[in-house]
Amino acid sequence: MEADVFVGRETELADVSALLERVRHVTLTGPAGVGKTCLALRLARTLEPAFPGGVHVVELSEAPADLDSLAETLAGAIGAHHRPGTPALRTLVDEFLTRRTLLVLDTCDRVVGATGILVGLLLRSVEGLRVLTTSRQRLGLPGEHLYPVGGLPDTDAVRLITALAGDRFGDVDPVELCRRLDNLPLAIRLAVADDTPGGPGTLDELAAALDGRPISTAGLAAFDGHVTSPDELAAALEGRTIPAAEREIHAERAGATPRGQAAAPRRHSSMRVALGWSHELCTPQERLLWARASVFAGTFDIEAAEEVCAGGALAVKDVLDGLLGLLDKSVLVREEGEGGVRYRLLNTVREFGVVWLDRLGETDEIQRRHRDHFLALSARAEMSWQGRQLEWYRRLVLECGNMRGAIEYCYSRPPEYRRGLDLVGNLWFLWACCGMQAPGDDLLQRGLDLDHTPSPERVKALWVHAWVSIQRGDLERAERILTECAAEDADGYATAYVSQFQAHLAVVRGDVVEALRLIKNARVRHRSTGNVFPGFLPTYTVVATAMMLADHHDQAVSVLREGHELCESCGDYWTLIRLDLLLAQAEHSLGNTAAAIESACGSLRGARLFGDSISLMEALEVFVVIAEARADDTFAATMFGASRAAWRSADVPPSRSPMIATQLRAAELRLRGRMGRAEFDRLEARGGSISLRDAVEHALQGDLS
Q: Starting at the edge strand that comes first in sequence, how are the strands of the sheet with 340-345 ordered?
């Protein structure tokens, strides 16, 4: 492995160079292994011509923590001329006073307080001095400018791993591997260095650790970089530090570094050791919070952190301070968006916490708390989904990783199977309405296979699974599931849903009479129980579709308008998507092109808000039909290709709606006849190269130019 490989960072180099022209002190911050030191050294080399007084680089990882000793260390490191009886600080000031100088202080983490004071004194005394520091936390000076350093962009991360490893990775996807390693340069270098077939620390072992799968003892030792003694574990948890000599004894006993062999610099030996530096900087409460927060997959908010992580030595009132402390030490990443402020542990940082949580003996307890929190959250979301659909969708999209983690916890423990099925059932709106049919299908099927004992949770999961199966175009399976649901529903809880989805199947088969009989029964039952959504309101789609199949398009429009008003008054914006889709088809059949386009656009806009890919793809097909009827052949053929490609990518049968399927086939035949096979195929291929997102935007604009 080439130690001096440096890839990317062009933006960072330019930003910090420009920043040092305007300000006098910049601190590069970021998590362990992100490459702060490499960036600082490259900057030092790049900026050397701009500083006549020189660029001095001093590494402070083993520097003394008191101010006088630190000043002496710094003076010695830069070769300052020392006069007997002169304080080291005065020597430094004299050294920097005459010419413009850049002082680079690397790895200030262990001596943040003393370094901050020393840098402050030097900057006040020497006007021409510029200081660049690297630290996982701020030095705390008034004039300090923080520059956060993140992982490499995907392209640069792949360039780095390719430069280091060549073609030694076989079938391993370098992009995916780098992302698992958070695109951290040090983690990438170590993955390459440890990739010895059959040995500890292989890419498979590392991927297992990052995925949360069991990892072998040898692999864990390689990932750690050393074997930690019980004394070290206890000391770390209590906030104590094991003396260096004692650490060497432990290492020798564990066989980490045989006597007589030089050890690599501690902070470069492994990600575990690099993260250990951050760990040592934390207070005992911050360490405990770090370990407990490792249970979260993806991001989490303060509410979740307080409910899951508080307890024992970590009071609820201390959680926010702990989060801020971890954030200041570059352990946590803060993200702010529509869902408010959220926090995240990088994969490598999270894996470190997972190991510590296990060593604390708290893994099962914290996972159970995590499950309880997200089970309760799913229940709250279901209860208030009707009037707050977009709000809950946007929140729960951020919680998908945590929800899945809670479900997997339940599915791995027989006594918890029913709770897992309850959680999956509560999230029916994600699986059926928000473009998550594939993961929902998998989680529902697995939960139903784990426990066949009849229960309210199982009955609910069955009708939800039938709905998802219809969405995915697997109508035969939906029929079987509904039969099973009816047989197990001794209390009649799901009778209305069984009738509702059987009516949907009947209308797809073209059996209008049976569809209307079944949907009438469902509507009566939903009204009697006050089930507005997902019960009564979605039944308007079945009624309207049946009327359209019977060529009663005027009546269908009336029914759809009525349903539209009810949905708006109840806050059911998802059903509006389906109603607008049918309105577009009905208005088109009546020759009302402008109204058809308006409704199709409304369906697209709504589906885009919910991530409802099924509705997006069906709406694109409606645009094909409308455009072909207007002889807008180029647009129609291109949209046809885009919709076909999207269906193939989704891996579900296209055009389940009986009307649109017939209309689309007729439109395709007419387009081929008018344009000729070659031109149609060319435009279809052009459309096939457009992403679903871009195709939707083009459809809304009505122009592909």
A: 299-300, 340-345, 332-337
